[in-house]
Design brief:
By secondary structure, the protein is an alpha+beta fold. The protein has two domains: 105 residues, Glutamine synthetase, N-terminal domain (Ubiquitin-like (UB roll), Roll), CATH 3.10.20; 321 residues, 2-Layer Sandwich (Creatine Kinase, Chain A, domain 2), CATH 3.30.590. It is 37% helix and 20% strand. The chain has twelve helices and 18 strands. The strands form three sheets. Strands 7, 8, 9, 10, 11, 12, 13, 15, 16 and 17 form a ten-stranded mixed beta sheet that branches. Strands 1, 2, 3, 4, 5 and 6 form a six-stranded mixed beta sheet that branches. The longest helix has 27 residues.
């Protein structure tokens, strides 16, 4: 389950040790995430690096959300040397690098609660079916003047060029920093809402992209902080304007062949692609708690703000949950489907895993998608949507967790450890939120009740 062969790992280890010596790297940060997608790190010195790459770095798993009980606390962070990269910010005359880690139990078996391991297991299932899973997420986020208030940094709109805008320089600096880390950025641009921006990374295999998403979020926040600005991936920080999504473009390959492409189909979609779409549609309510994992996520999934609230698919329809970008002749490898409900505050490893699981289940069950919907779903009446068989995504975190808890697909995808730990955490979050008295209630009810 390591994801790389022993030979590849050994060769990568030697390259890391050479790079550390030659590039004057004094410290290496070892990165991994808890089940919610919060990045954890332990830092080792260059002198200790070789030993850590052989034996891992021990840590207390009972202190990490969703990991282990206190009586089972010993865990090992085992660096993956293929993920080594020197961080683009400098510390005096020396450098700091990072590597992502696989979390192991003391006997060196993979830890079932490690989100990276969850994704690896599902990628292994895809590989046994002959597929490699590629993804290309679009990360939307906001810049605010501080972390205390939602004060906009700019008043731009979609694709606006604002020459006097600090955010333009922040995006460009972010793209250059990601390039130094070996992450290729295809586009950066202003999004629809004030002070909202987007970074699109070039598609990659899902495990690499999970690491890239975590790195990209760190870089965006780090560069914003450097300039005295706060960057946030909160799905809906401001009422009445668009929230931030993480639309995930995805495809399956066999070797160099994109198995989603069919030259003879009107939509240029193969049967495999259509089954995959049908799987995403059928199981989308069950996986939403993972792709939209916060109470605030459901403030974004409402009609009218370009976020999908209804379960449908189409080609040019940006109100659809699943969109198929238009095929361009000669671009067979670019044929893909775009799943539009995830937001950038999710755990990317778990989100990629459940989307893949849903799509593969559609292939296994040979599910057929309904007819595509090419009208604005938001403008349809409830009766029209019912007649067309268009369902809805969960409207709250509580509803999403209820659906997830009944899902065999999600339980099998995540494994019992992550499945039950995640549900416990999210139930606690919902109960804490439900008990709050909000500003809306004060403004609405205090004067009249």
């Amino acid at each position: 389950m390591s994801g790389v062969s022993v030979k590849v790992r050994d060769e990568a280890k030697e390259r890391v040790l050479v790079a550390v010596r030659e590039q004057n790297v004094k410290f290496v940060e070892l990165w991994f995430t808890d089940i919610l997608g919060f990045l954890k790190t332990v830092t080792v010195t260059a002198d200790e690096l070789e030993n850590v790459m052989d034996y891992g770095a021990g840590f207390d798993g009972s202190s990490i959300e969703g990991f282990v009980r206190i009586e089972e606390s010993d865990m090992i962070a085992m660096p993956d040397p293929t993920t080594f990269a020197i961080l683009p910010w400098r510390y005096g005359d020396y450098k700091v690098a990072r590597m992502f880690c696989d979390v192991l139990k003391p006997g060196r078996a993979p830890f079932e609660g490690d989100p990276r391991y969850v994704l690896k297991r599902n990628l292994e299932k895809a590989a046994k079916m002959g597929f490699t899973f590629y993804v290309g997420p679009e990360l939307e986020y906001f810049y605010f003047k501080s972390s205390e208030r939602t004060e906009f940094l700019d008043r731009g709109g979609y694709f606006d060029m604002t020459p006097l805008d600090l955010a333009t320089a922040l995006r460009q600096e972010t793209a250059l920093a990601l390039k130094e880390l070996g992450i290729e950025v295809e586009y950066t641009h202003h999004e629809v809402a004030y002070s909202q921006h987007e970074v699109d990374m070039k598609y990659a295999d899902a495990l690499t992209m999970g690491d890239n998403v975590m790195t990209c979020k760190v870089v965006i926040k780090k560069i914003a902080l450097k300039h005295g600005v706060h960057a946030t991936f909160m799905p809906k920080p401001v009422y009445g304007i668009n929230g931030s999504g993480m639309h995930v473009h995805q495809s399956l390959f066999r070797g160099d062949q994109n198995v989603f492409f069919d030259p003879d189909d009107p939509y240029h979609l193969s049967d495999i692609a259509k089954h995959y779409i049908a799987g995403l549609l059928k199981y989308s309510p069950e996986i939403t708690a993972i792709t939209c994992q916060w109470v605030n996520s459901y403030k974004r999934l409402v009609p009218g703000y370009e976020a999908p609230a209804y379960i449908s698919w189409g080609t040019r329809n940006r109100s659809a949950l699943v969109r198929v970008p238009e095929y361009k002749p000669g671009k067979e490898k670019s044929v893909r489907v775009e799943f539009r409900s995830p937001d950038p505050a999710c755990n990317p490893y778990l989100a990629f895993a459940v989307m893949l699981a849903a799509g593969l289940k559609g292939i296994e069950e040979k599910l057929e998608p309904p007819e595509p919907v090419e009208v604005d779903v938001y403008r349809l009446s409830e009766e029209e949507r019912r007649r067309m068989g268009i369902g809805t995504l969960p409207r709250s975190l509580e509803e999403a967790i209820d659906l997830m808890e009944k899902s065999e697909l999600v339980r099998e995808c995540l494994g019992d450890h992550v499945f039950y730990s995640f549900i416990r955490n999210k139930r606690a979050e919902w109960e804490a939120y439900r008990a709050q008295v909000t500003e809306y209630e004060i403004k609405r009810y205090l004067p009249i009740l």
